[in-house]
Amino acid sequence: MTEKTTTLAFLAVVAHSSFGAFGAVGITVVAAAAGCVEASTAGSHVKAGDLYAPGQERYDDYFAAVHSQQASAAQWAADRKAAHQTIVSALKLDGDATDAAIGKAAHAKPTQSKTVALAVEQTVHADTERAKGLEAMASKIDELVKTGHLLEEHVSEDFGKPGSGQSAPAPSDVKMELHASFEVLDGLRERAKTEAKAAQDFLALLQQHGSAGAGASKHGSSPSKTAQAPASAPAGASSAPAATPAPKPAPKTDPGEVFQP
Questions:
Q1: What DSSP designation does 203 have?
Q2: Using a CB cutoff of 8 Å and minimum separation of 24, what contacts does 118-123 make?
Q3: How confident is the model at residue 175 (pLDDT cuts 50, 70, 90)?
Q4: What's the whole-number mean pLDDT along residues 62-85?
């Protein structure tokens, strides 16, 4: 019995004491209706994670898209583990290490560790892409819910037409599965947002611990390289070519020593 049903049952007792049997009956009917609403999607194929296909293309495509989102959500834990595998291995942690444990271990490692720095850089890239995918999924679910509500408006005319001889499901069954899909998609949307936020928090954790900066050498200059001056051009030397020395003047001849035949 749910909290809502329990509350309504309590109100029935109060109504009986205040308004007699008639008031209690009225409250009890309301409680029974609430229970029916809550149980209306209990036997749904969609809720059970099964692919539902009522036999009409538009509806089949919709339910296939819902099932695809369910299948993707079932892989989220494995996707997170794969995204963190490199840094978990570099830090020699357990495969199920939490984000907090990974961030703490990365911070404890020397910044000169090239293995850890590379692992952090790869993890930052993987989790950034994973967060983007989860955010995109939440937006896609919003569009999918809109499609489902549009289909719901035409269920009565698309299914169970009198004299059609169709073996299609009853309109009430299709509506039940649509309502179940709305509940499932609402849950997936919230989970996708939660997973995306967790990925973003993990990235912030790495940056807070200074681990994400370990890969900065890929984008900046290496201190050892900037400190060195080219061997062919020492610091402060002029780049102009050296001047050619002037030729020595010819030796002067003494007029008295001139030979005369």
A1: H
A2: 118/90, 118/215, 119/86, 119/87, 119/89, 119/90, 119/91, 120/87, 120/206, 120/211, 120/212, 120/214, 120/215, 121/212, 121/214, 121/215, 121/218, 122/86, 122/87, 123/83, 123/84, 123/86, 123/87, 123/206
A3: very high
A4: 95
One-letter amino acid of 174: V
Cα 10 from Cα 28, distance rounded (Å): 10
Task: Tell me if residue 124 falls in helix, strand or coil.
Answer: helix
Let me know the angle formed at the C-alpha of 38 by 34 and 42, rounded to the nearest 5 degrees.
150
Q: Amino acid identity, residue 152?
A: E
Alpha-carbon distances, residue 83 vs 48, 74, 97, 119, 139 (angstroms) = 29, 16, 12, 10, 22
Domain boundaries, the chain: 1-39, 45-159+166-215
Task: Tokens for 59, please give them.
Answer: 């509806």
From the CB of residue 256, how many other CB atoms can be counted at a distance below 10 Å? 5
Amino acid at 217: S
Question: For the segment 149-167, what is each residue's pLDDT rounded down to a tens digit?
Answer: 999 999 998 997 655 555 6
